[in-house]
Design brief:
- The chain has 225 residues and is of the alpha/beta class.
- The protein folds into two domains: 116 residues, Response regulator (Rossmann fold, 3-Layer(aba) Sandwich), CATH 3.40.50.2300; 100 residues, Orthogonal Bundle (Arc Repressor Mutant, subunit A).
- Strands 2-1-3-4-5 form a five-stranded parallel beta sheet, with helices on both faces. It has a four-stranded antiparallel beta sheet with strand order 6-7-8-9, with helices on one face. A two-stranded antiparallel sheet has the order 10-11.
């Protein structure tokens, strides 16, 4: 899952980016409203964390413009303003949720998960594809009844496949959602991580989950082979 973080406080940006990255999110950081508007319209994001008080245009205006331009990515707004009128203003501008600074990272993470779940069924907390079970809150993975230990990036890739189970996903789509800005979709890293996932899954079961669709990409679907 790829997140755009719009925050001009360097300390908060580092803190949030580090925490989200450790939870398997790919995170791009920008510091101004203009950068946010540009990045949100040229790149694909699963969610946006948007500070209100940023160099012009401010977060409220960024949110309004994105909604006017048809960008429907879920937006969590951050601000030091805690008046009811401020929260109403943020929600009326098109934000999906509102969190007041200072905040505990655990609450931010829970709100991000809840915001993404509201997008649709694909974001339910426990994903099941055949004998594969992924708890997106704890990042615990079981396949055919066996627990599987994965690295942060392996987990992120598997979760993305599971959210798109039964569909072909191409290299660019994988790069857009699993890696952050600047990643080369033609790098062989995608194949490296796909192969690592396959090896981990094959250690515990003969069932095949990740299939290469020649010339198109990959598909996650349980098959007996």
């Amino acid at each position: 899952m790829r997140i755009l973080l719009v925050e001009d406080d360097a300390g908060i940006a580092r803190f949030v980016r580090k925490g989200l990255t450790e939870q398997s999110y790919a995170v791009d950081v920008v510091t101004t409203g203009e950068e946010a508007l540009y990045q949100a319209t040229v790149s694909v994001y699963d969610g946006i964390i948007l500070d209100v008080i940023i160099p012009a245009p401010d977060g409220l205006e960024v949110c309004r413009r994105l909604r006017e331009e048809g960008v429907n990515v879920p937006i969590l707004m951050l601000t030091a303003r805690d008046a009811v009128s401020d929260r109403i203003g943020g929600l009326d501008a098109g934000a999906d949720d509102y969190l007041v600074k200072p905040f505990e990272f655990g609450e931010l993470l829970a709100r991000v998960r809840a915001m993404l779940r509201r997008v649709g069924a694909a974001h339910k907390p426990v994903l099941t594809v055949g004998s594969l079970e992924i708890d997106t809150r704890s990042h615990r993975v079981r396949f055919d009844g066996h627990p599987i230990a994965l690295t942060t990036k392996e987990y992120a890739l598997l979760e993305f496949f599971a959210r798109n189970a039964g569909q072909i996903v191409g290299r660019e789509e994988i790069a857009d959602h699993v890696w952050n800005q600047g990643f080369d979709p033609f790098s062989n890293l995608i194949e490296v991580y796909v192969n690592r996932l396959r090896r981990n899954l094959e250690k515990v079961s003969n069932k095949k989950l990740i299939h290469t669709v020649r010339g198109s990409g990959y598909m996650l679907e349980e098959r007996e082979e």
